[in-house]
Amino acid sequence: MSTWLVTGGAGYIGAHIVRAFVGQGLDVVVLDDLSSGHASFVPDGVPFVRTTILDTPAVVAALREHDVAGVVHLAGFKYAGVSVQRPLHTYEQNVTGTASVLAAMAEAGVASLVFSSSAAVYGTPETELVTEATPTAPESPYGESKLIGEWLIRDQARASADGPLPLRHTSLRYFNVVGSGDESVVDTSPHNLFPLALEAVAAGRPPTIFGDDYPTPDGTCVRDYVHVADVAEAHVAAARALDAGHALQAAYNLGSGDGVSVRQIMAAVAAVTGSDLEPTIAPRRPGDPARIVASGAAAARDLGWAMRHDLTEMVASDWRARGSASR
Fold first, then answer.
1. What dotted CATH number matches 179-223+256-294+308-325?
2. Which CATH fold topology does 3-177+225-253 show?
3. Which single residue of 60, 168, 281, 285 could bond 81 by disulfide (Cβ 3.0 to 4.6 Å)?
4. Catalytic residues
C-alpha cells in the first residue's frame, strides 16, 4: 500500500489513526499546525510537516516530497458549541481548509481521500436510528461546515470524473469519539465530555452535565460513544479499500446503534474512578441536539467496522491515559 498523509495527525483522533497505519506496517506522514495538536503525539519515525492546511503550496510540497498517494483529512475546527460564537473561524478552517486540501491534491496528482466528517451534519434527526439516508439538517456552523466539506469533495469528484485522475473518496461521519488506544495519547479538548468529566474528578471537583431538560428518558443528551481505536481502524480500512480501487459509499456512519446518555456516562465515570461526587447541572450548550444514535451497518458491511470496546472500557482507557500523562 502507498503512503498516506494525515492532516491533523498530531491531534487526539489523528494520532490514533497514524498509529493504526503504523500498526499495520503502512507508510504515513503527518501534517498539522499544532493549533490543537501536540508534536509529542507523532510517533518516532513518522515524518511530520508543521504547516496549516490553508497554505496550499505547503500542502502541495508535502504531498510531492513524501510521494503521497492518499490523504486522510482530519485537520479542522471541531467544536459545535464554540462554532456558534465563531462561525467565520469555523468556516475558514473547515470549508476554506478543505478546499485548499482538494486544490493541493489536484495539483500534486493525489486522487484518494478519506474525509473526517461528523454526526453534526444530521442536526436533530426525526428518526430513532440515523442511517446514511437520513436527511442532513445541521444546527451549528460546525455541522454546516462539515456538510459543505462533503459537498466540495463530491463536486470535485464529479469535476474530475472524466479526467486522467478521478478523485476517489469517502467521508466517515463521527459520533462521540472517546477513550484512548495508547496511554501516550489523550483527548485534551476543553469542550468534550470525557476530558471535562475525568479531569474534574481527578481534581476533586464534581463533573458537569450541560442540560438535564432534554426530551430524553433521563433529560440528558443521548449519543453514540465510540472508542477512538475503533474509529482509527475504520480509516485504515477505508484507505485500503480506496487503494485497492474498491467502490465506497460517499459517506459512512461510525455509529454503535445504541445510545448512551450523559447521566449514564457519569455513572460509568463514578464506577471506574471510585468517585462519589454528584454531577452539577449547568445550562444547555448551544448547538447540542437532544439525541443522535446511528446504525453502523453500512460501515460494517464495506469497511469491517465494529465496536470492540464497551462503555466501561472507553472510560477506563481514558482514565488510565490521564493517569499516565500526569506522571
1. 3.90.25.10
2. Rossmann fold (3.40.50)
3. 285
4. 142
